[in-house]
Design brief:
By secondary structure, the chain is mainly beta. The protein has two domains: about 210 residues, Jelly Rolls (Sandwich); about 200 residues, Jelly Rolls (Sandwich), CATH 2.60.120.560. It is built from five helices and 28 strands. The strands form five sheets. Strands 1, 5, 6, 8, 11, 12, 13 and 15 form an eight-stranded antiparallel beta sheet that branches. Strands 16, 18, 19, 21, 24, 25, 26 and 28 form an eight-stranded antiparallel beta sheet that branches. The chain is elongated, with a radius of gyration of 24 Å. The N and C termini lie far apart (about 65 Å). The N terminus is likely disordered.
Protein backbone atom coordinates (compact mmCIF):
# COMPACT_ATOMS: atom_id res chain seq x y z
CA UNK A 1 0.00 0.00 0.00
CA UNK A 2 1.28 3.46 -0.86
CA UNK A 3 2.37 5.56 2.09
CA UNK A 4 1.84 9.28 2.25
CA UNK A 5 5.24 10.91 2.85
CA UNK A 6 5.98 12.84 6.01
CA UNK A 7 7.77 16.05 5.11
CA UNK A 8 10.10 17.87 7.43
CA UNK A 9 10.44 21.54 6.50
CA UNK A 10 12.97 22.56 9.13
CA UNK A 11 16.70 22.35 8.51
CA UNK A 12 17.36 19.83 11.30
CA UNK A 13 16.43 16.17 11.26
CA UNK A 14 17.13 12.80 12.82
CA UNK A 15 17.40 9.86 10.45
CA UNK A 16 16.01 6.53 11.58
CA UNK A 17 18.05 3.42 10.83
CA UNK A 18 17.70 2.25 7.25
CA UNK A 19 16.64 -1.29 6.49
CA UNK A 20 19.68 -3.41 5.77
CA UNK A 21 23.15 -2.84 7.14
CA UNK A 22 24.61 0.65 6.97
CA UNK A 23 28.22 0.46 5.67
CA UNK A 24 30.89 1.27 8.24
CA UNK A 25 31.50 5.01 8.48
CA UNK A 26 28.35 5.91 6.54
CA UNK A 27 24.99 7.37 7.54
CA UNK A 28 21.64 6.53 5.98
CA UNK A 29 20.05 9.31 3.94
CA UNK A 30 16.74 7.43 3.53
CA UNK A 31 15.11 5.64 6.46
CA UNK A 32 12.97 3.29 4.37
CA UNK A 33 9.75 4.77 5.76
CA UNK A 34 9.30 8.38 4.68
CA UNK A 35 11.17 11.50 3.56
CA UNK A 36 12.41 12.55 6.97
CA UNK A 37 15.55 14.64 6.28
CA UNK A 38 14.42 15.65 2.79
CA UNK A 39 12.61 18.62 1.28
CA UNK A 40 11.47 19.67 -2.17
CA UNK A 41 13.88 21.29 -4.60
CA UNK A 42 14.48 22.37 -8.17
CA UNK A 43 17.24 23.39 -10.58
CA UNK A 44 18.08 26.47 -8.53
CA UNK A 45 21.45 27.96 -7.57
CA UNK A 46 21.93 27.07 -3.91
CA UNK A 47 24.00 30.19 -3.29
CA UNK A 48 21.10 32.27 -4.58
CA UNK A 49 18.75 30.44 -2.23
CA UNK A 50 20.99 31.12 0.76
CA UNK A 51 21.27 34.79 -0.19
CA UNK A 52 17.51 35.31 0.03
CA UNK A 53 15.94 36.76 3.18
CA UNK A 54 14.77 33.96 5.48
CA UNK A 55 11.09 34.63 4.77
CA UNK A 56 11.68 34.29 1.02
CA UNK A 57 13.76 31.14 1.52
CA UNK A 58 11.01 29.52 3.53
CA UNK A 59 8.33 30.52 1.01
CA UNK A 60 10.30 29.04 -1.90
CA UNK A 61 11.01 25.79 -0.03
CA UNK A 62 7.32 25.56 0.95
CA UNK A 63 6.42 25.88 -2.74
CA UNK A 64 8.83 23.07 -3.64
CA UNK A 65 7.52 20.94 -0.77
CA UNK A 66 3.97 21.30 -2.08
CA UNK A 67 5.12 20.01 -5.47
CA UNK A 68 6.96 17.13 -3.82
CA UNK A 69 3.71 15.53 -2.64
CA UNK A 70 1.29 17.14 -5.11
CA UNK A 71 -1.26 14.51 -6.00
CA UNK A 72 -1.33 13.08 -9.52
CA UNK A 73 -3.93 10.39 -10.17
CA UNK A 74 -4.61 10.40 -6.40
CA UNK A 75 -1.01 9.30 -5.71
CA UNK A 76 1.86 11.47 -4.37
CA UNK A 77 4.70 12.09 -6.82
CA UNK A 78 7.08 10.61 -4.22
CA UNK A 79 6.05 7.44 -2.39
CA UNK A 80 7.63 4.75 -0.22
CA UNK A 81 6.86 1.22 -1.39
CA UNK A 82 8.53 -1.81 0.21
CA UNK A 83 11.35 0.33 1.66
CA UNK A 84 12.05 1.89 -1.74
CA UNK A 85 11.69 5.56 -2.60
CA UNK A 86 9.60 5.82 -5.77
CA UNK A 87 8.95 8.82 -8.00
CA UNK A 88 6.34 8.91 -10.76
CA UNK A 89 8.49 11.17 -12.96
CA UNK A 90 6.89 14.42 -11.85
CA UNK A 91 6.97 16.92 -9.01
CA UNK A 92 9.89 18.70 -7.40
CA UNK A 93 13.21 17.02 -6.65
CA UNK A 94 13.84 15.10 -3.42
CA UNK A 95 16.50 17.31 -1.82
CA UNK A 96 18.47 16.78 1.38
CA UNK A 97 17.73 19.34 4.07
CA UNK A 98 21.37 19.16 5.13
CA UNK A 99 24.13 20.65 3.02
CA UNK A 100 27.28 18.61 2.33
CA UNK A 101 30.85 19.47 1.36
CA UNK A 102 33.22 16.61 0.50
CA UNK A 103 31.53 13.22 0.63
CA UNK A 104 31.21 9.66 -0.63
CA UNK A 105 27.67 8.72 -1.69
CA UNK A 106 26.33 5.21 -2.21
CA UNK A 107 22.91 4.48 -3.71
CA UNK A 108 20.94 2.07 -5.88
CA UNK A 109 18.59 3.14 -8.66
CA UNK A 110 16.47 1.70 -11.44
CA UNK A 111 14.31 3.36 -14.06
CA UNK A 112 11.37 2.71 -16.34
CA UNK A 113 11.63 2.69 -20.12
CA UNK A 114 12.32 6.12 -21.61
CA UNK A 115 13.37 7.70 -18.29
CA UNK A 116 15.93 10.50 -18.02
CA UNK A 117 17.03 11.43 -14.48
CA UNK A 118 20.09 12.41 -12.48
CA UNK A 119 21.70 13.30 -9.16
CA UNK A 120 22.58 16.89 -8.27
CA UNK A 121 25.73 17.36 -6.17
CA UNK A 122 25.71 20.42 -3.89
CA UNK A 123 22.64 21.52 -5.81
CA UNK A 124 24.50 21.43 -9.15
CA UNK A 125 23.40 19.20 -12.07
CA UNK A 126 24.36 16.40 -12.50
CA UNK A 127 25.49 12.79 -12.50
CA UNK A 128 23.42 11.44 -15.37
CA UNK A 129 20.88 8.59 -15.28
CA UNK A 130 18.93 7.50 -18.35
CA UNK A 131 17.54 4.69 -20.48
CA UNK A 132 20.53 4.09 -22.74
CA UNK A 133 18.35 2.44 -25.39
CA UNK A 134 16.24 5.58 -25.92
CA UNK A 135 16.19 7.14 -29.40
CA UNK A 136 18.68 10.00 -29.52
CA UNK A 137 17.72 12.31 -32.40
CA UNK A 138 19.55 15.29 -30.84
CA UNK A 139 22.81 13.44 -30.20
CA UNK A 140 22.71 13.73 -26.40
CA UNK A 141 24.80 10.58 -26.02
CA UNK A 142 22.33 8.21 -24.38
CA UNK A 143 24.07 5.15 -25.88
CA UNK A 144 27.29 6.07 -24.00
CA UNK A 145 25.65 5.12 -20.72
CA UNK A 146 24.82 6.71 -17.40
CA UNK A 147 27.21 8.28 -14.91
CA UNK A 148 28.61 11.18 -16.94
CA UNK A 149 28.62 14.83 -15.82
CA UNK A 150 26.01 15.72 -18.42
CA UNK A 151 25.76 19.45 -17.70
CA UNK A 152 29.47 20.10 -18.18
CA UNK A 153 30.39 21.81 -21.44
CA UNK A 154 30.16 19.53 -24.48
CA UNK A 155 33.91 19.82 -25.11
CA UNK A 156 34.99 19.38 -21.46
CA UNK A 157 37.27 16.36 -20.90
CA UNK A 158 35.55 13.70 -18.82
CA UNK A 159 32.01 14.92 -19.49
CA UNK A 160 30.92 11.56 -20.92
CA UNK A 161 31.28 8.20 -19.13
CA UNK A 162 34.44 6.23 -19.78
CA UNK A 163 32.50 3.00 -20.35
CA UNK A 164 28.89 1.88 -20.72
CA UNK A 165 28.22 0.14 -17.40
CA UNK A 166 24.40 0.22 -17.13
CA UNK A 167 22.53 -2.96 -16.38
CA UNK A 168 19.53 -3.95 -18.54
CA UNK A 169 16.48 -1.74 -18.14
CA UNK A 170 14.45 -2.58 -15.05
CA UNK A 171 17.40 -3.97 -13.07
CA UNK A 172 18.98 -2.20 -10.11
CA UNK A 173 22.16 -0.19 -10.70
CA UNK A 174 24.63 0.87 -8.01
CA UNK A 175 26.43 4.23 -7.81
CA UNK A 176 29.47 5.15 -5.78
CA UNK A 177 30.06 8.90 -6.11
CA UNK A 178 33.05 10.71 -4.62
CA UNK A 179 33.26 14.51 -4.60
CA UNK A 180 36.28 16.40 -3.22
CA UNK A 181 36.27 20.11 -3.94
CA UNK A 182 34.80 20.37 -7.42
CA UNK A 183 36.31 17.05 -8.52
CA UNK A 184 33.96 14.13 -9.02
CA UNK A 185 34.60 10.42 -9.51
CA UNK A 186 31.77 8.02 -10.30
CA UNK A 187 31.63 4.24 -10.25
CA UNK A 188 28.60 2.60 -11.88
CA UNK A 189 28.14 -1.05 -10.99
CA UNK A 190 31.77 -1.08 -9.75
CA UNK A 191 33.17 0.31 -13.01
CA UNK A 192 34.89 3.72 -13.05
CA UNK A 193 32.94 5.94 -15.43
CA UNK A 194 34.10 9.43 -14.31
CA UNK A 195 37.66 9.89 -13.07
CA UNK A 196 38.35 12.98 -10.94
CA UNK A 197 36.60 15.43 -13.27
CA UNK A 198 35.72 19.03 -12.34
CA UNK A 199 31.97 19.50 -12.00
CA UNK A 200 31.27 22.81 -13.71
CA UNK A 201 28.91 25.44 -12.35
CA UNK A 202 25.76 25.05 -14.45
CA UNK A 203 24.31 28.30 -13.12
CA UNK A 204 27.15 30.48 -14.46
CA UNK A 205 27.24 29.10 -18.00
CA UNK A 206 25.88 32.30 -19.53
CA UNK A 207 28.70 34.38 -18.01
CA UNK A 208 32.09 34.96 -19.66
CA UNK A 209 34.63 32.32 -18.60
CA UNK A 210 36.57 34.77 -16.38
CA UNK A 211 33.38 35.67 -14.47
CA UNK A 212 32.19 32.14 -13.66
CA UNK A 213 32.40 30.88 -10.10
CA UNK A 214 33.19 27.29 -9.10
CA UNK A 215 30.43 25.13 -7.65
CA UNK A 216 29.56 25.87 -4.01
CA UNK A 217 31.77 24.44 -1.28
CA UNK A 218 28.62 23.00 0.33
CA UNK A 219 25.12 22.24 -0.84
CA UNK A 220 22.34 19.63 -0.93
CA UNK A 221 22.02 16.33 -2.78
CA UNK A 222 19.02 16.20 -5.13
CA UNK A 223 17.26 13.30 -6.85
CA UNK A 224 15.92 14.62 -10.13
CA UNK A 225 12.42 14.05 -11.52
CA UNK A 226 12.38 14.13 -15.31
CA UNK A 227 9.21 12.58 -16.69
CA UNK A 228 9.93 8.88 -16.08
CA UNK A 229 9.40 6.55 -13.16
CA UNK A 230 12.45 6.02 -10.89
CA UNK A 231 13.19 3.83 -7.88
CA UNK A 232 15.84 4.54 -5.22
CA UNK A 233 17.13 2.51 -2.28
CA UNK A 234 20.17 2.03 -0.02
CA UNK A 235 21.15 5.71 0.09
CA UNK A 236 24.20 6.22 2.33
CA UNK A 237 26.66 9.06 2.77
CA UNK A 238 30.09 9.48 4.39
CA UNK A 239 31.46 12.97 4.90
CA UNK A 240 35.16 13.32 4.07
CA UNK A 241 37.42 15.30 6.39
CA UNK A 242 40.28 17.58 5.37
CA UNK A 243 43.21 15.17 5.80
CA UNK A 244 41.55 12.46 3.72
CA UNK A 245 40.54 15.02 1.09
CA UNK A 246 44.17 16.16 0.76
CA UNK A 247 45.29 12.54 0.35
CA UNK A 248 42.69 11.88 -2.34
CA UNK A 249 43.72 14.96 -4.29
CA UNK A 250 47.42 14.17 -4.00
CA UNK A 251 46.82 10.65 -5.34
CA UNK A 252 45.69 11.98 -8.72
CA UNK A 253 47.98 13.37 -11.41
CA UNK A 254 51.17 12.85 -9.40
CA UNK A 255 53.31 11.72 -12.34
CA UNK A 256 56.25 14.01 -13.08
CA UNK A 257 56.26 15.84 -9.74
CA UNK A 258 59.51 15.99 -7.75
CA UNK A 259 59.86 16.73 -4.05
CA UNK A 260 61.94 19.86 -3.40
CA UNK A 261 61.88 19.63 0.41
CA UNK A 262 63.09 16.52 2.25
CA UNK A 263 61.32 17.43 5.49
CA UNK A 264 64.56 17.60 7.46
CA UNK A 265 66.85 20.20 5.85
CA UNK A 266 66.65 23.19 3.55
CA UNK A 267 69.18 21.72 1.16
CA UNK A 268 68.74 23.34 -2.26
CA UNK A 269 66.96 26.40 -0.82
CA UNK A 270 68.21 30.00 -0.65
CA UNK A 271 67.23 33.36 0.80
CA UNK A 272 66.92 34.34 4.50
CA UNK A 273 66.55 30.76 5.71
CA UNK A 274 66.70 31.81 9.36
CA UNK A 275 63.10 33.12 9.12
CA UNK A 276 61.79 29.55 9.21
CA UNK A 277 62.18 26.47 11.39
CA UNK A 278 61.68 22.81 10.53
CA UNK A 279 59.19 20.76 12.51
CA UNK A 280 57.33 17.49 11.83
CA UNK A 281 58.51 17.42 8.19
CA UNK A 282 57.20 20.95 7.67
CA UNK A 283 58.59 24.41 7.02
CA UNK A 284 57.22 26.64 9.77
CA UNK A 285 57.42 30.41 9.46
CA UNK A 286 58.71 32.08 12.57
CA UNK A 287 56.56 34.63 14.31
CA UNK A 288 57.31 38.26 13.44
CA UNK A 289 59.79 37.37 10.71
CA UNK A 290 59.45 38.14 7.02
CA UNK A 291 61.26 37.61 3.75
CA UNK A 292 61.23 35.25 0.77
CA UNK A 293 62.92 31.86 0.76
CA UNK A 294 63.11 29.97 -2.52
CA UNK A 295 64.15 26.71 -4.17
CA UNK A 296 67.39 27.57 -5.91
CA UNK A 297 66.54 26.19 -9.35
CA UNK A 298 65.32 28.59 -12.00
CA UNK A 299 62.01 27.62 -13.59
CA UNK A 300 60.09 28.63 -16.69
CA UNK A 301 56.73 26.86 -16.96
CA UNK A 302 55.86 24.54 -14.09
CA UNK A 303 53.30 23.14 -11.72
CA UNK A 304 53.64 23.21 -7.96
CA UNK A 305 51.92 21.22 -5.23
CA UNK A 306 52.00 22.18 -1.59
CA UNK A 307 50.11 21.49 1.61
CA UNK A 308 49.73 24.50 3.89
CA UNK A 309 48.21 25.22 7.28
CA UNK A 310 47.25 28.68 8.51
CA UNK A 311 46.81 30.25 11.93
CA UNK A 312 43.91 32.66 12.37
CA UNK A 313 44.70 35.75 10.30
CA UNK A 314 47.75 34.03 8.80
CA UNK A 315 49.48 35.65 5.83
CA UNK A 316 52.12 34.27 3.46
CA UNK A 317 52.46 33.73 -0.28
CA UNK A 318 53.85 31.63 -3.11
CA UNK A 319 56.67 33.42 -4.91
CA UNK A 320 56.26 32.84 -8.65
CA UNK A 321 59.25 33.42 -10.96
CA UNK A 322 61.02 35.32 -8.20
CA UNK A 323 64.39 36.86 -9.24
CA UNK A 324 66.03 36.18 -5.85
CA UNK A 325 65.82 39.68 -4.37
CA UNK A 326 63.14 42.26 -3.74
CA UNK A 327 59.39 42.09 -3.07
CA UNK A 328 58.14 39.11 -5.07
CA UNK A 329 54.64 40.61 -5.45
CA UNK A 330 56.19 43.22 -7.73
CA UNK A 331 59.61 42.09 -8.96
CA UNK A 332 58.55 38.49 -9.53
CA UNK A 333 55.83 37.41 -11.92
CA UNK A 334 53.49 37.59 -8.93
CA UNK A 335 52.85 36.50 -5.39
CA UNK A 336 49.99 34.03 -5.10
CA UNK A 337 48.45 34.91 -1.77
CA UNK A 338 48.34 32.42 1.09
CA UNK A 339 45.90 34.06 3.47
CA UNK A 340 43.23 33.12 6.01
CA UNK A 341 39.87 33.30 4.20
CA UNK A 342 38.47 34.99 7.32
CA UNK A 343 41.30 37.49 7.51
CA UNK A 344 38.92 40.46 7.83
CA UNK A 345 37.42 39.05 11.03
CA UNK A 346 40.88 38.86 12.62
CA UNK A 347 42.97 41.71 11.25
CA UNK A 348 40.87 44.04 9.12
CA UNK A 349 39.57 44.84 5.65
CA UNK A 350 41.38 43.70 2.49
CA UNK A 351 40.94 44.25 -1.22
CA UNK A 352 39.50 41.18 -3.07
CA UNK A 353 42.82 40.98 -4.95
CA UNK A 354 44.55 40.30 -1.63
CA UNK A 355 42.45 37.23 -0.78
CA UNK A 356 43.86 33.72 -0.77
CA UNK A 357 44.93 32.43 -4.19
CA UNK A 358 44.86 35.86 -5.80
CA UNK A 359 47.65 37.17 -8.00
CA UNK A 360 48.45 39.83 -5.43
CA UNK A 361 47.01 43.21 -6.30
CA UNK A 362 46.12 42.16 -9.86
CA UNK A 363 43.48 39.40 -10.08
CA UNK A 364 41.12 38.19 -7.36
CA UNK A 365 40.56 34.49 -6.66
CA UNK A 366 37.26 32.89 -5.66
CA UNK A 367 36.84 32.59 -1.90
CA UNK A 368 35.31 30.13 0.52
CA UNK A 369 37.23 26.94 -0.37
CA UNK A 370 39.77 26.74 2.46
CA UNK A 371 39.63 24.10 5.15
CA UNK A 372 39.11 25.29 8.75
CA UNK A 373 41.97 27.02 10.54
CA UNK A 374 44.47 24.50 11.91
CA UNK A 375 43.73 21.92 9.18
CA UNK A 376 45.88 21.19 6.15
CA UNK A 377 44.98 22.47 2.68
CA UNK A 378 46.12 21.03 -0.66
CA UNK A 379 46.96 23.49 -3.45
CA UNK A 380 48.17 22.99 -6.99
CA UNK A 381 49.31 25.93 -9.12
CA UNK A 382 50.10 25.84 -12.83
CA UNK A 383 52.22 28.50 -14.54
CA UNK A 384 52.38 28.47 -18.34
CA UNK A 385 53.66 31.62 -20.00
CA UNK A 386 51.51 34.45 -18.69
CA UNK A 387 48.70 32.11 -17.60
CA UNK A 388 48.13 31.01 -14.00
CA UNK A 389 45.71 28.42 -12.62
CA UNK A 390 45.29 27.83 -8.90
CA UNK A 391 43.34 24.82 -7.61
CA UNK A 392 42.66 24.85 -3.87
CA UNK A 393 41.36 21.68 -2.20
CA UNK A 394 40.08 20.40 -5.52
CA UNK A 395 38.44 23.63 -6.70
CA UNK A 396 39.90 26.01 -9.28
CA UNK A 397 39.85 29.42 -7.59
CA UNK A 398 42.00 31.34 -10.09
CA UNK A 399 42.34 30.98 -13.85
CA UNK A 400 43.87 34.08 -15.35
CA UNK A 401 46.22 35.50 -17.95
CA UNK A 402 48.40 38.26 -16.48
CA UNK A 403 49.16 39.60 -19.94
CA UNK A 404 45.55 40.78 -20.07
CA UNK A 405 45.58 42.63 -16.76
CA UNK A 406 44.80 46.34 -17.04
CA UNK A 407 47.73 47.76 -15.12
CA UNK A 408 45.90 51.06 -14.71
CA UNK A 409 43.43 49.24 -12.47
CA UNK A 410 45.75 47.27 -10.18
CA UNK A 411 45.68 47.70 -6.41
CA UNK A 412 47.02 51.11 -5.33
CA UNK A 413 48.10 51.68 -8.97
CA UNK A 414 51.45 50.12 -8.11
CA UNK A 415 53.72 49.03 -10.92
CA UNK A 416 54.51 45.32 -11.31
CA UNK A 417 57.76 45.34 -13.29
CA UNK A 418 58.21 41.58 -12.91
CA UNK A 419 54.77 40.60 -14.20
CA UNK A 420 56.09 39.49 -17.60
CA UNK A 421 59.17 37.64 -16.31
CA UNK A 422 59.59 34.40 -18.32
CA UNK A 423 61.67 32.61 -15.66
CA UNK A 424 62.51 32.73 -11.96
CA UNK A 425 62.43 30.87 -8.68
CA UNK A 426 59.60 29.27 -6.70
CA UNK A 427 59.38 29.98 -2.99
CA UNK A 428 57.46 31.36 -0.03
CA UNK A 429 56.97 35.00 0.89
CA UNK A 430 56.48 35.22 4.64
CA UNK A 431 54.74 38.01 6.51
CA UNK A 432 55.40 37.43 10.22
CA UNK A 433 52.82 34.67 10.85
CA UNK A 434 53.52 30.99 11.72
CA UNK A 435 52.21 29.50 8.47
CA UNK A 436 53.28 25.89 7.78
CA UNK A 437 54.16 24.14 4.51
CA UNK A 438 54.85 20.49 3.73
CA UNK A 439 54.83 18.00 0.80
CA UNK A 440 56.29 20.61 -1.56
CA UNK A 441 56.51 19.33 -5.12
CA UNK A 442 57.50 20.81 -8.49
CA UNK A 443 56.84 19.56 -12.01
CA UNK A 444 58.70 21.43 -14.76
CA UNK A 445 56.64 21.70 -17.96
Amino acid sequence: MLKRLILITCFCCTLFPCLGQTPTGFEALFNGKDLTGWRGGDTYDHRKLLSLPQVEQEALIAKWNAKLIELGNAVPHWSVIDNELVNDGNGSYATTIKDYGNFELLLDWKIAKGTDSGIYLRGVPQVQIWDTSMPDPHGFGTAMGSGGLWNNELTSPGRNPLVHADKPLGEWNHYRILIVGSRVSVWLNDQLVVDHVVLENYYDKALPANKRLPIPARGPIELQTHGGRTWWRNLYIREIKSDEACEILASHGAAGFKSIFDGKTLSGWAGPLDVVSLKNNSIVWQLKKGGTIYWNHELKDFESRVNFKLPAGGNNGLAIRYPGTGDTAYVGMCELQVLDDNYEKVKGKIDPRQAHGSAYGMVAAARGYQNPIGEWNFQESKIIGSKITVELNGTVILNTDLSKVDMAEVLAHKKHPGKDRPTGFFGFAGHNDPVEFKDILIKPL
